Amino acid sequence: MGSSSGQSNNSYDLSFKILLIGDSGVGKSSLLVSFISSAVDDLAPTIGVDFKIKQLTVGGKRLKLTIWDTAGQERFRTLTSSYYRGAQGIILVYDVTRRETFTNLSDVWAKEVDLYSTNQDCVKMLVGNKVDRESERVVSREEGIALAKEHGCLFLECSAKTRENVEQCFEQLALKIMEVPSLLEEGSTVVKRNILKQKPENQSPPAGGCCS
Fold it and tell me: Is the dihedral of CA 95, 99, 100, 106 positive or negative?
């Protein structure tokens, strides 16, 4: 008797909400698609908000990550507070070939995180994308590391195109979230709530006889 795949799809130990933020065109959606599937074509800009769910095992725990991807454009900023609510992890993305996407992380995005994030302990990660275009690089790795230190973020450089370090972004973030007691607690309460919700319909009457 193999276990039905439907069953394993919704069995996980922890559930976390992760946000991807940063300027338009830095490759947030590409990172997400690269992480979720094996193909990354040139994607159209995200309109408003999009989210994807990815299940993976990290540190021996089965995780369900709900990853929210936003449009970098100003006109969608009205969604902001609900978008940030309850996020355990935030990935701030810039493009190593475009300096302004890097400076905007301090000028715009980090401020926004401080303003809207409801979790004081929320884990942040700075990600420099597009390292496959090394010859066009204008932001050095050292600068990235320095900015990450300044804002208390984890740091990684990656390429959504070649998929270099893409999985590491999400896995390292998840591992770090799991080290924070309050976030770990949140991640497991969501799961407990879902399990309780599903209980009644599949409860079978107790079998006769005692099992001692």
Answer: positive
